[in-house]
Specification:
The chain is an alpha+beta fold. The chain contains 8 helices and 7 strands, in the order H-H-H-H-E-H-H-E-E-H-E-E-H-E-E. Helix 3 (85-140) packs antiparallel against helix 4, helix 4 packs parallel to helix 8 and helix 5 crosses helix 7. The protein starts with 6 loop residues before the first helix and ends with a strand.
Length: 332
């Protein structure tokens, strides 16, 4: 029998049998009836003990079988059948383990879906400018192409390559964030220095759009963080504002400091956000109704990731008088 293949059961049976023979022999030595009574009672005890133990081991084997079915065949375990003593304690622990396994399985399935969706979005975002670049290159090979047209195509090709370069760089930064390999420095940073560094790459594009950038705040306002990564976050927000602000529009950055946090408020006088877009603005590859054709939908997602990893928050909302407002808070 499988029951007696258990070494603990065999050792226990040998020990109990030895005791039965010993005390029965002592009883027979004293009196035959006493020896018979001791032998009968001892045998009855052994039979009852091993019957109860066998039933317990059978339940454990059944539980083991159900766990195996759950892991391999997704068949649920009926824990209500195991409600006694140590089996009840084991049932409680297995219930916790089962719940955790289900949660992990659901999380893995969701991660796989998000990964598949992200890969599809990435391939689409890269394929589109690559296709356009190949088309432009084929046009540039035409020997009869007019110089003006050639110059225009070269400018378009440069823009497409810059877009691909930015997309790849942003995706690499997001991947590093997801992998937890980014180490944020903790250095004192002047708020004005951060704003100036973030706005510097956009000065010429904003001049071409005849947009005005207003910067206001105390000279000594500061916070603790990583200047390089924080510049990346603010730059992405400013770029979003610039793309959605009309020609001749205005973008303002106001920063302040108090005992709890340092705050940056970035506003524009563009069309603002659609109500349906507000809950999804910081989702990867999400493009709102007012997004431009060149928009990829990862700039704001990257900005929030960077700010969150520095004990900060990023909120987007519509201004009562019109336009968008981004509020960044770096907490002490």
């Amino acid at each position: 029998m499988e029951f007696f293949r258990n070494p603990e059961i065999r050792a226990s049976l040998l020990w109990h049998t030895f005791l039965l023979i010993l005390f029965s022999s002592l009883g027979f030595f004293h009196d035959p009836w006493t020896g018979t009574l001791i032998a009968f009672v001892s045998f009855l005890y052994l039979f009852s003990h091993y019957l109860i133990t066998w039933r317990r081991y059978r339940k454990l084997a059944q539980l083991s079988h159900e766990i195996d079915n759950m892991l391999h065949n997704q068949i649920p375990i009926h824990f209500e059948k195991y409600r006694e003593g140590e089996l009840s304690i084991l049932e409680s622990e297995l219930s916790k383990m089962t719940l955790r396994l289900k949660e992990q399985a659901a999380a893995l399935a969701n991660d796989k879906k998000l990964l598949a969706d992200s890969m599809a979005d990435i391939s689409h975002q890269i394929r589109s400018p690559l296709t356009s670049s190949n088309l432009i290159l084929s046009l540039l090979t035409d020997p009869d192409l007019m110089p003006e047209r050639r110059q225009q195509l070269l400018q378009e090709l440069t823009q497409l390559l810059s877009r691909i370069d930015w997309l790849v760089e942003a995706l690499l930064k997001i991947s590093k964030m997801d992998a937890g390999t980014v180490h944020m420095q903790q250095n004192p940073i002047l708020a004005k220095t951060l704003v100036q560094r973030a706005a510097e790459p956009l000065i010429i594009p904003m001049e071409l759009r005849e947009q005005t950038l207003l910067i206001r705040g105390p000279e000594n306002a500061s916070f603790i963080g990583d200047l390089s990564w924080s510049t990346e976050a603010v730059l992405n927000i400013l770029k979003n504002c610039m793309e959605h602000t009309p020609f001749g529009g205005r973008i303002s950055i106001t920063f302040s400091e108090n005992a709890i946090f340092t705050e940056f408020v970035i506003e524009d006088n563009g069309p603002g956000f659609d109500k349906e877009d507000l809950p999804h603005l910081f989702e990867r590859f999400y493009k709102g109704k007012h997004a431009s054709e060149q928009s990829v939908g990862i700039g704001l997602a990257l900005a929030r990731m960077i700010i969150s990893q520095q004990n900060g928050t990023l909120k987007a909302e519509n201004r009562p008088e019109g336009g968008a407002r981004f509020t960044i808070k770096f907490y002490r």
